[in-house]
């Protein structure tokens, strides 16, 4: 049984709350869950330092986008006290051209320290899907 004061359980709740606020999108609300000095790395190596940066990037790529969570897993690093959280599922929404999607796989990897998100890596199939739409994919999806 999960203990609500357990750092792993708490970190999973922090990440899911952050993601829920990010999907509204409410970057100001999402910012309550992050530490100063946050490092966000998007697919392709793009670096951001605030939830508002992610919202702005997504607004250029998607008409709208949400996440359908499949699962959230976490592990405590006993040496540092950091909790590594993995949230995976599917993006769904619409591209800027209005066409919709619903099976765009993603995994977001977080480090939570002292109750705040200090880093995240964002990985998804969007670039591959956009290459396919443009006729530039190297292999079928």
Topology:
Elements: H1 7-23, H2 27-31, E1 34-42, E2 46-48, H3 51-61, E3 62-76, E4 83-95, E5 100-113, E6 116-124, H4 126-133
Parallel strand pairs: 1-6
Antiparallel strand pairs: 1-2, 3-4, 4-5, 5-6
Quickly list its features.
141 residues, Nuclear Transport Factor 2, Chain: A, six-stranded mixed sheet, 4 helices
Percentage of β-strand residues: 35-45%
What is the mean predicted local confidence, pLDDT?
A: 95
User: Structural class of the secondary elements?
Assistant: alpha+beta
CATH class category? Alpha Beta
Number of DSSP helices? 4
Contiguous low-pLDDT stretches (5 residues minimum) are none
As laid out across the biggest beta sheet, the strand order is 2-1-6-5-4-3
CATH architecture: Roll
Order of helices and strands: HHEEHEEEEH
What is the number of beta strands? 6
Span of the ends, CA to CA: 40 Å
Shape: globular
Describe this structure in words.
By secondary structure, this protein is of the alpha+beta class. It has one domain: Roll (Nuclear Transport Factor 2, Chain: A), CATH 3.10.450. Helices cover 29% and strands 45% of the residues. The protein is built from four helices and six strands. It has helices at 7-23, 27-31, 51-61, 126-133, and strands at residues 34-42, 46-48, 62-76, 83-95, 100-113, 116-124. It has a six-stranded mixed sheet with strand order 2-1-6-5-4-3. The longest helix is centred in the N-terminal third of the chain and has 17 residues, at 7-23. The model has no long low-confidence stretch (mean pLDDT 95).
